[in-house]
Design brief:
The chain is of the alpha/beta class and about 280 residues long. It has 12 helices and 6 strands.
């Protein structure tokens, strides 16, 4: 913490944009929040301006969350999704509660004898988390109670039939397309062409917080040889409730080839005086 990770990313992206033949659309920079994205954009602008480099066309570079990128990707390249709308956490719960039976909510069994089924309004948030976990992690279907699995598929059917994406499905669909064979899946072909032709650099901030599904998205984006830079701290896993897998950063050098590891071990945020007071 306080070692200047965001500044390193800003300078790295700025240096990439200075390279001959590199266009802003060739770069993707992922952050975990829109607030962090706004800060990163501002810092990149500042670095470029300080170096006397024009920032024209920089809007073509994606800096933001993985959910936002995945939604933009599929809705730009997959016609079947053009009319889909995105659900927020609040509208997602309202959608589940409003369709409590068809969404599978009130059909989903529990292990409690007093409450054998999930209840409308009371358990919709929990149900949303369950449907997300079943897509975000590697889960063996045979270990899931049949009633829970049926409720989940009811939710997924309702989601698509109603032309909605929740946050998890934005990434899940993008991953399915990136992992599909473009010669056999017509919808995957334009996605693969775009990734292969346009994406040359991918940067991921707070990499220790990515979950298995997000890691599959990253791997899909660099499958044609794009340069990947991840920044994180295995001691700062703050989103474990989202299913983050800290092992992603610990084993990064073992899972990717040609890795160069740089350690930032100076804490500029906490001076010697601050540490001594603490």
């Amino acid at each position: 913490a306080g070692s200047g990770k965001t500044q390193v990313i800003s300078q790295r992206v700025a240096e990439i944009l200075k390279r001959p033949g590199v266009e802003p659309r060739n770069v993707i920079a992922f952050t975990f929040t829109e607030k962090a994205a706004a800060e990163l954009k501002e810092r990149i602008h500042s670095v470029l301006e300080a170096d006397g480099v024009g920032t024209g066309g920089i809007a073509d570079m994606y800096v933001g969350t993985m959910h936002g990128y995945a939604l933009e990707l599929v809705q730009r390249l997959v016609p079947e999704t053009f009319k889909f709308s995105a659900l927020t956490d609040i509208t997602g719960r309202l959608f589940i509660d409003r369709n409590s039976r068809r969404s599978g909510l009130t059909e989903c069994p529990t292990s409690s004898a007093r409450t054998p089924r999930l209840r409308r309004f009371l358990h919709s948030k929990l149900y949303m988390q369950v449907t997300s976990v079943l897509r975000e992690d590697t889960v063996e279907d045979e270990l899931i109670p049949a009633g829970v699995l049926k409720a989940y598929w009811d939710y997924m059917s309702l989601l698509y039939n109603s032309a909605f994406f929740d946050f998890t499905e934005m990434i899940n669909l993008a991953v399915q397309l990136l992992e599909a064979d473009p010669n056999q899946d017509e919808a995957a072909a334009p996605v693969h062409r775009h990734i292969q032709d346009d994406i040359r650099y991918v940067v991921v901030d707070e990499y220790q917080d990515v979950n298995p599904l997000q890691e599959r998205l990253v791997r899909g984006l660099v499958q044609f040889g794009a340069n990947l830079c991840v920044v994180g701290d295995d001691d700062q896993t703050i989103y474990q409730w989202r299913g983050s897998e800290v092992n992603n950063i610990v084993t990064f050098k073992d899972r990717y080839t040609g890795v160069r590891q740089v350690t930032l071990d100076d804490n500029f945020r906490s001076s010697k005086g601050v540490v001594e007071v603490g």
